[in-house]
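We both want to read discrete structure tokens more fluently, so let's practise on a single case. Once you have written the record down, we can walk along the chain together.
***
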Amino acid sequence: MPLRPARLCLLLALALAFPALAKAPKASQAYSPAAQNLIDRAFDDLDPARPVMDVHVHAIGLGQDGDGTSVNSKKLSPRHPFKRFETGLYLKATGVQGLAHFDRDYLDRLIARARAFPRPVKIHLLAMDQAYRDDGTPDPVRTEFHVPNAYVFEVAALQPDLIVPVVSIHPARKDAIQELEACAARGARLLKWLPNAQNIDPADPRYDAFYRRMQELGMVLLTHAGEEKAVAVKGAQALGNPLRLRRPLDLGVTVIVAHCASLGRNADLDQPGKTATNFDLFLRLMADPNYQGRLYGDLSAITQINRLPAPLRTLLARTDLDQRLLNGSDYPLPGVNLIIWTRRLVQLKMITPDERKALNEIWRRNPLLFDFVLKRTLRDPKTGRRWEAALFQRDPETLTPSGPLPRR
């Protein structure tokens, strides 16, 4: 089947982007004074007794070494050239050379980049459960990639000072609550969903028992909301509607909305027949006093070109939201030059041309560090305000409130 012209143009654009993907850091190479000064400024007002927190780092595995990870065969098949090329873009962004031992090499590169931070950092490494059908059976056709909970536990056990395991459990699984309890017993406190890709409707009342057990165990739900672009979703963008998260919130679950739902539109469930941006729907939830202390957002992907400028402008301007935001990188996506346009941030007057030059230097060496330094450098173009330091050290495991649920 021939490629549509628009898709062919995208393939050519991606091909041109490949040389600009981030390369492996050279430990012996010093940063320029300008880049080093920007790094120093990003860390100088942090609490030295607490680590930097990154709540959104993806585990990726192809499963060659029998570690239980897998990807949909279409993503690497020459019979599906666009999927293969797209997958190659993400894999190449990791800085890993070759696929023979990709899983091991990806972790080695991630660990090296995290250890290169001048202060300690905690990487929250995300598992990814399979997609499931409504009858509770796995749906391998719909599953884009799979990272079992056992895998992130094993990795975290090897680097306990650096890596925090974040589990993923589809609530339609027949053993969902048992797996939840088992993961909690092993110390997990965060649960990750990508509803659009995993076929999870957060508003489904069949999951109420799962939510109640999450609340009892003090588990925090870190869930994607908004449109999903990085993973095929097969017509399920409505599952990313932030308003669908009212159900777990009303049952007492603490929820972190990944990316602050900063991409796409969805039905306004409060006004039938109308639509709104997912970001505006997220802000509506944040304004609900019943969700104060239970609803948060993470900053992962917020600087990507396809999300600019409104969400980033709003989050930089809203001082009242700082206490409810957490830092996340969405790694390895910061390594994809195609979606990180520092030139656009200069045009928006959120960074200066000199800062852009220094940031680009950091990006070439370490995209994970770049993402952190960029977010610490960004300023509100009207007031010059930057995000407060405490945001970048906020521990998601401390968010679960105590006391009775508010009456609605």
